[in-house]
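User: quick one, sequence for these tokens?
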């Protein structure tokens, strides 16, 4: 018999102040095309000497992971596995290392940036920090990297191969990545106000970065946020296929669209691809409370981790903060939440959560 999978805690470092216990009470209103994270005081979490040698992605993840572990009340010895999803890994150190090769004519190179430039550096550094010698894996699956990590953890917990797993998604911004995506039109040309992204009427998205970690377990703790019911990803879907696939996904769980109390959508203001979300928002879920999140988090490969954080917080607090409301519909209680995300028409994901 498969065991249930519980999300016992959440941790987040994002373009909003999410590293404390608050829930979007004070929104960072900005007008830009690229959003950096609201960084915590890293000295409160990491010894300064160690922090100086860490890439930004590692520092963000360390804070997020520590907050998640503290929230669940688990100590270092209880973590059986660490699974991370990332689209770009520690791309900042990769860029610096390649630049050093060019600038120094391939001579006198220090190994630190090369060592920290691989995609699995984050998972490895967290494991070293807490002394976890268990399963350690990193998924690099573009915009479903985070979902791939969650799916791996879900299968292990259901089969009782592990009891407590630290799962996260992280990506960082660097200049070369931003300039490249500007060149190919993936980033908006003109600055957009945080709360007006959906009204921009232009192509491209507002890019950002972040780290989101969660403690998943097959044992329910008092800190539990939600139960992870199901997860599915699709590499490609045409607009005409989306509705049927969502319906089939819910049917596999014995549900219909009417049973969903809230749908969380990954609108990012790109007029070329937001139509996918419109299909659900104006179709089968038109009478369902709706929320969105990328106007606050920005767009990046693991931005769905922020959506996952938002959905868990809503189930925990039983309220939808005004900044993420997409419509004015409401429920007395929120029992079941569906999260749908895609990026530029590819890498679609569906995650179904239930109140703990």
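Assistant:
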């Amino acid at each position: 018999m498969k065991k249930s999978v519980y999300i016992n805690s959440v941790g987040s470092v994002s373009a909003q102040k999410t590293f404390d216990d608050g829930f979007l009470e004070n929104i960072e209103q900005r007008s830009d095309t690229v959003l950096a994270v609201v960084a915590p005081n890293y000295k409160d979490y990491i010894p300064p000497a160690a922090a100086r040698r860490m890439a930004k992605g590692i520092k963000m993840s360390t804070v997020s992971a520590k907050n998640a572990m503290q929230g669940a009340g688990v100590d270092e010895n209880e973590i059986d596995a660490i699974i991370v999803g990332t689209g770009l890994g520690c791309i900042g150190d990769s860029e610096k290392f390649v630049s050093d090769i060019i600038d120094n004519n391939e001579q006198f190179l220090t190994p630190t940036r090369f060592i920290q430039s691989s995609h699995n550096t984050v998972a490895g550094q967290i494991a070293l920090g807490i002394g976890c010698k268990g399963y350690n894996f990193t998924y690099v699956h573009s915009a479903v990297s985070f979902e791939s990590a969650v799916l791996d953890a879900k299968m292990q917990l259901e089969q009782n191969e592990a009891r407590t797993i630290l799962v996260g998604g992280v990506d960082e911004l660097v200049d070369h990545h931003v300039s490249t995506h500007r060149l190919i039109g993936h980033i908006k040309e003109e600055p957009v106000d945080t709360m007006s992204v959906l009204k921009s009427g232009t192509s491209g998205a507002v890019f950002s970065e972040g780290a989101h970690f969660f403690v998943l377990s097959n044992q329910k703790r008092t800190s539990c946020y939600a139960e992870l019911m199901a997860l599915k990803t699709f590499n490609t879907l045409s607009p005409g296929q989306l509705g049927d696939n969502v319906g089939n996904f819910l049917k596999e769980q014995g549900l219909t669209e009417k049973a969903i109390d809230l749908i969380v959508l990954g609108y990012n203001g790109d007029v070329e691809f937001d139509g996918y979300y419109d299909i659900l928002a104006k179709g089968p879920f038109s009478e369902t409370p709706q929320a969105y999140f990328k106007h606050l988090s920005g767009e990046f490969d693991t931005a769905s981790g922020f959506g996952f954080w938002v959905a868990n917080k809503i189930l925990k607090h039983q309220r939808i903060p005004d900044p993420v409301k997409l419509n004015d519909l409401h429920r007395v209680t929120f029992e079941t939440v569906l999260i749908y995300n895609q990026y530029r028409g590819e890498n679609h994901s569906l995650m179904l959560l239930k109140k703990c």
